[in-house]
Write a structure and sequence with these properties.
Blueprint: H1 3-28, E1 30-31, E2 36-37, H2 42-61, H3 72-76, H4 81-114, H5 122-150, H6 155-160, H7 163-179, H8 185-207, H9 215-232, H10 239-264, H11 277-283
Helix pairs in contact: 1-2, 1-9, 1-10, 2-9, 4-5, 4-10, 5-7, 7-8, 8-9, 8-10, 9-10
Length: about 280
């Protein structure tokens, strides 16, 4: 079995199936008048069962014998143009989410200034910080995708590599603050779980640059995070959350696929890559 094909496909299929089950749950098991979910609803059991099965499948299938890559380029290097396209789309979408989040955060800040006793400062503050960090984080995703395609590290990409995980951490905190007073975990649990898994996936990927490779953990977090990210979009979040979730999910899926190919798949064919930066400078 080609794990680098089957497991990303399973993550996509599981995310779409979870999205449909979540919409079914919200339509059949959620009672808006009470803000509660019907106990014992089939949609809820099906959704939780799918989540558990995906986690079990990824945990078992990312296991393997033998050694694997322990540096960033051997682990995530990929000469395919499609992989670079996905990383570029994820980076640009993450920067777009930052711009959208800054707009929403400034609106919340105005509400706080008008009535500080009704709106805690931590909410717009965390929103603005998370949104601002999405700008360098998106650039970092874009540059790391280019680095993986060129098979050559550069200083700018290395400096920006921790920013996706840092932006994800603040995004996770902002998500918790946004729903912190909500007693029903089922309302926002999948959104919070997606933010947690995607943040950890990008943290583990960046750790390869600092001598802390965790291949199986990174692959599991990337695949499960992408699936939960797609599932959580069924909650119809605000534009910032939807764009950030989709961007982090695309980036995690690209990272997970490259890591699985370099760990379990056949060697890459000796095709042409983009020329290294030094060659471009000489040609210019």
């Amino acid at each position: 079995m080609r794990k680098d094909i089957a497991l990303p496909a399973l993550a996509l299929a599981g995310g779409v199936a979870g999205f449909l089950l979540r919409r079914w749950q919200l339509a059949s098991a959620y009672v808006p008048e009470t803000g509660l979910f019907v106990h014992g609803a089939p949609a809820t059991y099906a959704l939780l069962g799918l989540t558990g099965l995906l986690a079990l499948a990824f945990a078992l299938l990312v296991r393997g014998d033998g050694e694997g890559p322990e540096d960033f380029l051997p682990a995530f290097g990929c000469p395919e143009a499609g992989q670079m396209t996905i990383s570029a789309a994820a980076g640009l979408l993450l920067m777009l989410s930052g711009a959208l989040g800054l707009k929403d955060g400034l609106a919340e800040l105005q509400l706080w200034r008008a009535a500080p006793e009704l709106y805690p400062m931590a909410s717009p503050g965390s929103q603005l910080l998370a949104s601002a960090l999405c700008l360098p984080a998106g650039l970092g995703v874009l540059l790391l995708g280019r680095v993986a395609y060129r098979d050559e590290l550069d200083a700018a990409a290395c400096r920006l590599a921790p920013f996706p995980a840092l932006a994800g951490l603040v995004w996770l905190f902002a998500t918790h603050l946004k729903h912190g007073v909500e007693p029903v975990l089922m309302k926002y649990g999948f959104e919070l779980l997606a933010a947690l898994l995607l943040t950890l996936a990008h943290y583990c990927a960046a750790a390869f640059l600092y001598g802390r490779p965790r291949r199986r953990r990174t692959a599991f977090l990337a695949l499960m995070g992408a699936a939960m990210g797609i599932l959580s979009l069924a909650d119809q979040p605000d534009l910032f959350t939807a764009a950030a979730t989709l961007a982090f999910s695309l980036s995690a899926l690209a990272l997970g696929r490259a890591l699985l190919r370099n760990t379990f798949g056949p060697p890459w064919p000796q095709g042409e890559r983009m020329p290294p930066l030094e060659e471009e400078e000489q040609d210019g």
